[in-house]
Amino acid sequence: MKVKNLVKKPDNKALSGPILALILLVVGVALALVAASIAGGFLFGWGAAPKVSIEKVDILVDTNGNGFITVDVRNAGGSVLTGCQVTAINLDATFVPDSQDIAAGRSQTFTADNVAGTVLGDVYTFRVQCTAPNGQTVSDTKTGVAHT
Question: SS3 of 107, please?
Answer without folding.
Answer: strand
